[in-house]
Amino acid sequence: MNRILMIFDYFKEAFELNIGNKILYKPQIFFVIIKTAFVLACGILLMVLYRKLTESGFDFFGSNAVNMLAALMFLLIIIAALWIVSKFVEAGLYNMYSKVVHGGTAGMNDFWDGVRNNFFKFIAVDIITMLAWIPLGFVLIFIGIITLGAGFILVPFLVSVFLAMWKISITADGCGVFQSLRNSINFAVRFFVPYTVFLIIVFALSSPLSSPGFGNNASDVGDSIGEYMEKNNKIEDYQQNPIPDMDWQFSPDSRLNQNPGLCFVSSYDTIYPENEIYTDWKTELEGMEENNLLPKSLGPLHEWVDIVLVCGIGVATIGTALSSLIKMLFDVFFGLSMFVVYRNRFGEAEQQSEVVS
Amino acid sequence: MRNWFEVVMDSCKECLELSAKNLRIFIPSLVYLGVTVFLIVACIVAVIIFFIGSTMTGSMLSAFGDVASNGLPLMLGLAGLIVLVLLIMYSMVQAGVLAMLRTYLQDGRADYADFFAGLKKNWLGMFLGFVLVFLLLLLLAIPIAILVPIAGILTFGWGFLFGVVVLFVFFATWPVILTVDEEGVLSAIGKGFKIGKKFFWPLMVIGLLWTVIPSYLSGLVIAIPLVGLLAVPVVGTLLGVYFRFVLMRFYLSTKEEYSPKAIQYL
Questions:
Q1: Considering only residues 148 to 187 of chain B, which have any Cβ-Cβ distance to chain A shorter than 8 Å?
Q2: DSSP per residue, A261-302
Q3: Are A24 and A329 in contact (CB under 8 A)?
Q4: Smallest Cα–Cα separation from A176: which of A129, A229, A122?
Q5: Which residue has the higher pLDDT, A35 or A210?
Q6: Cα–chain-centroid distance for residue A52?
Q7: Shortest CA distance from A198: residue in chain B
């Protein structure tokens, strides 16, 4: 029980360090700016690309499958770029946390030292973790089935518990990737109960909008694009909303120059060809076309699409900036807390120092 | 000299220690949970039996079946009655538990006698307070319904969470004030609002912990086969009592006579 009570003292210390070292926010704010700029640039790029393609009548993507593949590749490149930048910031920032927690004052030199020493190690940790989930995935499915579903949530949570100190050990102990993995697991085994209580608080507050198990990494700073795309999943939109809305702008079609209305139809046709509402709607549109009721060139409909697109990009940009800034507050605080916990080892470090003295 | 965060963390620490020493403080809330679950299950079973019976036996229960199928007002009235009974029970339990917690914090003992004394004294005030706060929230429903979704969308979901927590900050302290200061309902709600304004950030931290930790833990324990569904309300109840305790401890810290220094730094 005493060890669990120590958690609150560690939070107090982390708060003091947090208040006294505003410089810790500098790299994070820099990263938030990059992330927001990325989202804004992607939005503008997509809009400009779409406009150019449709105006020239160029059928660049061809079928919808190719279109989706191209969009996926584009998204993957953005996520990979953001992930690399996030590891860069994380490596430097962790070194700053370490300096602050071990009694020093952090400066931007410590940030660059951290990047030099730990950047590739952090990349290696993430790649090893990702690769490890491939065989572990089968084990997880097996355990999940034999535990009637409990394993699907509890196993990833336990894995997070055992790996949570991996990067902290790399930074604080200055050791290699595999030695720090051993350190992290040993730490979790030695202080399992208080450490799990501590991590439940950390996970609950650093990712309150996600469910337990997966996605608990407090330092996953590069995920807002993923979250945004997940929330705006195009396939889900098609499934939930039988009337296609804004998604047609991602399916440039040469027919758009002749008739924007039927461009909806042509791109939607391949996804839900037998949808009743869609069929009625398509017939209605075709009837309107026959009676010359639809605009023959890019007209008001296109302008309306542009307005909605601009609003969407605006919301995505503001959302990315605000959510990243909010998350930053929790990330810095809990990052410091993790280092304080690792340094004090739930009172064991103090006992050892007393014995030595 | 403590800053506001230290006061909150010390409150959490002290209350965890005290709760672990005397588990009796959780019993009334768990009993209430058991009764609520039993009542809800009993109602569902009764309705199922009623409908099955009326369709199977025809003549005997068909009159009741007609009333049930056609009489929507009757069904709504029954549901309202159940909600009213549960709210009265909830008010009684809250009044008792808070009185028990106050005695535990101030005198170092937690007896059921304190629970029943508090129940007798404050249950009506507590009930009226819940009704008043509900009506107040109904009045605020339109601005809340506009502002919270906008904030939620613009922050990718964080705004929804903070919206709930801000409501907590202004409307969570009054039952504690009613119990500790023995004030009237309106005065307690007004004072609770002022306390929320004055100690916004510390209450925000307590509210965040109270909102997020039970939901995260529920997400973990719900996965446990067979007992998961039962474990979720149990976890919520235990943490609810604990955070009520923290809130009371924090409120006492802000009172000059309890900790003269604390108020200067909060």
A1: 153-158, 161
A2: HHHHHHHHHTT-TT-HHHHHHHHHHHHHHHTT-S-SSS-HHH
A3: no
A4: A122
A5: A35
A6: 30
A7: B213
Q: Output the six-digit token pair for A158.
A: 């336990």
- Residues B213 and B239 sit within 8 Å (Cβ to Cβ): yes
The H-or-E segment that residue A224 falls in is: helix A224-231
Predicted structure pTM score: 0.77
CB contact under 8 A, B212 and A205: yes
Interatomic CA distance for residues B41 and A115, integer angstroms: 58
Residues 6+ apart with CB under 8 A from A285: A261, A262, A264, A265, A294
ipTM of the complex: 0.84
Distance CA B148, CA B161 (A): 9
Residues 6+ apart with CB under 8 A from A350: A344
Number of Cβ pairs < 8 A linking chain A and chain B? 95
Report residue A219: phi and psi, to 5°.
-105, 15
Chain A contacts to B (CB-CB under 8 A) = 1, 4-5, 8-9, 11-12, 15, 147-154, 157, 200-201, 203-205, 208-209, 211-213, 224, 227-228, 231, 315, 318-320, 322-323, 326-327
Residues A122-156 have pLDDT tens digits of: 999 889 988 988 888 888 888 888 888 888 888 88
Which residues does B33 contact at the CB level (< 8 Å), separation at least 6? Answer: B233, B234, B237
Distance, in Å, from the CA atom of A82 to the CA atom of A77, rounded to the nearest integer, reads 9
Distance CA A224, CA A294 (A): 39
